[in-house]
Amino acid sequence: MEDAKTLSVADRLEVLQARIAAALERAGRKDDVTLVAVSKSVEVDRIAEAYRAGVRHFGENRVQEFEDKRRLLSLPSAVWHMVGHLQSNKARRAAEIFHTVDSVDTENVATKLAAAAASAGRRLPALIQVDLAGEQTKSGVSPDQLDTFAGKLAGLEGLEVRGLMTIPPFLEPPERVRPYFRRLRELAGKLGLGELSMGMSHDFEVAVEEGATQVRIGTALFGERPRR
């Protein structure tokens, strides 16, 4: 069997798609799951390789890093997701260069995103990031504030809230993360929201079993990133 370190992006994508399909089958789901390729710290040629292999959704963590990359990339049907913590002073630019912001976690950021999108004559798709574990190192709206927060965002003309996103604790085995994914699905259901961005390279199969509509995959697709 070929060493995992030598697999091409196309080979890795084929493996990931098979694992997603198997998880859907275990859950009795007939719908699809969008693979968002998290391309933080990934070279543009590797991103282009993923695009040629069929990936259309990409996630970036930093506005400036994507600014630098987008000048070097020509991927006409790519959909770019902002998936990292967004500082309020970067919100206007994020609304201009990303197709969707999947990590909205403060009213200030949401207001600036909405204003920028409205001035451009569009409604920006967005996901609310929820902090289910109360971890100080992670951003997100607490579950007990989610109803109020979502209600405020619903009144913003330039923003279209489509669902929720979460980054659960890294736990071994991945089965231990299941309660967090289940909880996010329950919260989204109460709000009538359909998109669930949850699950990464470590635990995406459990997330799919619990209803994820988007999984954010970096290492399992591109390999280990160089340390900085």
Percent helix, as a range, is: 25-40%
Largest sheet: 8 strands, parallel
Compute the average pLDDT: 94
- CATH top level class name: Alpha Beta
- Give the helices and strands as they follow along the chain: HEHEHEHEHEHEHEHEH
Distance between the termini: 31 Å
Instruction: Tell me how many strands there are.
Output: 8
Poorly predicted ranges: none
Share of residues in strands: 15-25%
Question: Can you tell me the overall shape?
Answer: globular
Radius of gyration: 17 Å
Helix/strand-derived category reads alpha/beta
Strand order, sheet with most strands: 7-6-5-4-3-2-1-8
CATH fold field value: TIM Barrel
Query: How many separate domains?
Result: 1
Going by CATH, what is the homologous superfamily? Alanine racemase
Task: Give the helix tally.
Answer: 9
CATH architecture: Alpha-Beta Barrel
Characterise this structure:
The chain has 228 residues and is an alpha/beta fold. The protein is 39% helix and 17% strand. The protein has helices at 9-27, 44-53, 63-70, 91-97, 107-119, 146-154, 178-191, 204-209, 219-222, and strands spanning 34-38, 57-60, 79-82, 100-104, 124-129, 159-165, 195-197, 214-217. The chain is globular, with a radius of gyration of 17 Å. An 8-stranded parallel β-sheet has the order 7-6-5-4-3-2-1-8. It has one domain (4-222): Alanine racemase (TIM Barrel). Helix 4 crosses helix 5 (107-119).
Concise synopsis of the structure shown:
With 228 residues, the protein is of the alpha/beta class. It has nine helices and eight strands.
Could you outline the blueprint of secondary structure elements for this entry?
Elements: H1 9-27, E1 34-38, H2 44-53, E2 57-60, H3 63-70, E3 79-82, H4 91-97, E4 100-104, H5 107-119, E5 124-129, H6 146-154, E6 159-165, H7 178-191, E7 195-197, H8 204-209, E8 214-217, H9 219-222
Parallel strand pairs: 1-2, 1-8, 2-3, 3-4, 4-5, 5-6, 6-7
Helix pairs in contact: 4-5
